[in-house]
Amino acid sequence: MQMGVRMRTVILILVFIGMYASCAAQRVAIDGGFADWDSLAVLATDPAGDAGSSGVDFTALQVDDDAEWLYVSFDTGVPLLLQGTNDIQLALDTDANPATGTPMSGIGAELFWNFEDKYGGVVLGSISQVWQSDVRLIIAPSMTSTRFELALRRGTVIDGKPLFPSDSIRIHLSDGIGDRLPDAGGGVLYTFRSSGVMPVVERLIRTPEPGAIRLLTWNTLFNGLLDAPRQPAYTRILQALRPDIMCFQECFDVSETEVLAFIQTVFDPPAGRSWHALKGDAGNVLVTHLDVEDSWLLQSAYRESAYLLRTPADEQLLLLNCHFRCCSADDHRQKEADGVIRFLRDAKTPGGTVTVDEGTPIVLVGDLNLVGDYQQYTTLIHGDIVDNTVFGADEAPDWNGAPWTELEPRHPTSLFTFTWDDSESGYCPGKLDYMLYTASVMDITQDMVVDPREMSAGQRMGHGIELTDASTASDHLPRFADLRWKNINTVESTAPATWQVSSVYPQPAQGHITVDIAGGRPVALQFQLHDVLGRRIALPAVEARASSAEGSQRIALPELHPGMYFLQITDGTRIESRPLVIE
Q1: What percent of the chain has pLDDT over 90?
Q2: Is residue 6 assigned to a domain?
């Protein structure tokens, strides 16, 4: 009987894993990248070469969905800003009935959206004008592109009526009097899935790994740190994150002394450390307990500052805190991007104004406002300077000649990557805040776009965060990342240097677990247990042990509530984490 129960449990687990893997493979992320779409079938095609005077030439339409969202992707043939100047319109017959809604190209459109105008119309008996926040429209990328993706909330209700009442919809794209998809009337039919996609596993705010440094970037929306009504929201989020380095933007009328005084009331630095604050330009402020060895203003007319920091572990970091010009200021943003690469070339080359040791990790964070020409992003990532006469030769940002690595922003429970969200604006949520780093010499062990609206009630309660804290504090969401230095100077041994955890069993566990360690030279390991909120749970005494090529460690467990936990194993320089299910 016991064996039968175990066998059924194993079968159920395998079925669940198989379902999860299958569903996860179909989920798309609205992030401005399209590799996930490339694995999905094209719903409809349109002949190339039938563009109108604008040059817009639709050729492919893809559609996907889950229980909460409708996802649409299409190409335009020419680079453009989807929320800029164009005549593109999306029409949705949300009940697949041409007799209802507004007659349009053979469909009855309950929703039509004009991308340049940044508003749409909903026809559910009567006509209602709607904005992006009414239908929760999310678009990517925010820069010029020849391909776009968007999401619409399926649960949208307008005037008490559901926008998506049917299992099927019809879709029509048009470019004014130019190209259409499809060319024939009647739209493209799409039927929602009969079963939903598995939810995204919640990303949790955990205690940083040993040796990691937590970095925060946050646009504070016009001096928000000193705005008394918003200070409680800032306080709760900062206390939950407890970053080692804080890069703030839009501190226009706030001095570094005032920011420092506020942070000192929020939380204390680690024992034996003290907070420092610097403001080298017109709006960016750095607060950190790390030692500040030097600082620079990249260009006098712009908000671009750099700092050379040293950690308590005697590791250096070259950090750039930037706030590029907004909106239609493409020329200014290009100069700002060119200036960043010029500074990096100077810093990496002996002599000149700035010189750092070879292999020093370099990180750029801030509100880059990349809402115009894609070239600005290309300049930053690849070091492709546009004005070489003024800013000099191109320079690959990473030490190994590779591009900078962009840390994609990840929300707690969705695959959206927007960092700016203003329900009062006509513009859709977008990715404006960036983190770029030299991946050849640095790892990211944890990161998140902190949006309490996506957090579980348990995580918010565990960290003392309220549902509306981020949206109260600013129109930009805070981002954090835990940085860990790679030891690129370690002399290789003839024995493998890397140990690994091969298994943790039994699962589910009761009373004890066994951890199998494989590979590597003998090394002392420590074992820590955390709950899903990142809180450490005391384990019975476990001796630090020397791992040989093969070995096992039996660990007694305290009395624990059933659920998910995380076991961390560390040698003091790196850490491995494994999920642990308690029955």
Answers
A1: 75
A2: no
